[in-house]
Amino acid sequence: MSVVEWTRHRLAGTTDEPVSLRGAFRVIGVTSFVSIALVTTLFPLYWTVNTSFKPAAETQTFPPTFTPETFTVSPYVDVLTGAGSSVLANSVIVSVGATVLAMVIGVPAGYAYARNPGKVGGKHLAFWILSLRMFPPIAPILPLFFMFRQVGMIDTYPTMMLLYLTFNVPLVVWLMRSFFQDIPQAVEEAAIMDGYSRLEAFFKVSLPLVSPGIVTTTLLVWIFSWNEFQFALVFTRNAAQTYPVIIPSLVGGHATLWNQVAALSVIAMIPIIVISLLMQKRLVRGLTLGAVKG
Hints:
This protein has helices at residues 3-12, 21-52, 74-81, 83-115, 125-134, 141-150, 157-181, 185-193, 198-209, 211-227, 230-235, 243-249, 258-278, 280-287. By secondary structure, the protein is mainly α. The chain folds into 2 domains: 3-74, no CATH class; 79-287, Orthogonal Bundle (MetI-like fold). Helix 3 crosses helix 13 (258-278), helix 4 (83-115) runs parallel beside helix 7 (157-181) and helix 4 packs antiparallel against helix 10. The longest helix is centred in the middle third of the chain and has 33 residues, at 83-115. It is a multi-pass membrane protein.
């Protein structure tokens, strides 16, 4: 039995209507596309994890081994006992600090713009806010570098947080504006009539209602800060260096420690995967709450 005939029989078993040859080819095409997409997406992840448990010599063998012949955790030990531990700590400090500051500034700004669109910046403010986020990060690097070097703030945590705020705050304002616009203003007015002040209505009514959106925005901002490379490469040396900068340094001219590169990459992926899984329900709710509305 051919693949087309098998597909037609399978589909015919789930419906009373005859399945056309076109429908069978459509199923085969969609299945093939999804399979190729999954392999293309998941194979690099598998290969990274696979390489991270190999000794250095095995990573250079040809043909490559699809499972470690000699299983070892020494790449993880070498990374965590070497420079990897400090750059991961720096990444945590910078990314968490930049995310908290962006949310503290951006959430109230997004609320103010959603509730008073005519009074805050005019009708074109939303476009200008978003345009800052679309601006290529490489463009302002040179003037910013000279400015921070002039005041002696190269290779410091506050510098990295301020740089990330430049691109994070517009994103937070844009997204939170959409989330707050989905909350009827009558809900806040009812709370005020019940005796709440404007500030109490914001904290006790509006914020809980948009909590899925806050979780989604926080995660997006944190991922950007966690993985950012260009600013970290230019504005850090040793004290505030983050993990995306240290990974290329493991690729040397004479020898490349691919197992340590893979181990550090796996360690860096773990927080994103864990947080995304733990916050999955809120993340989905936030993405469907209206974050993509203009």
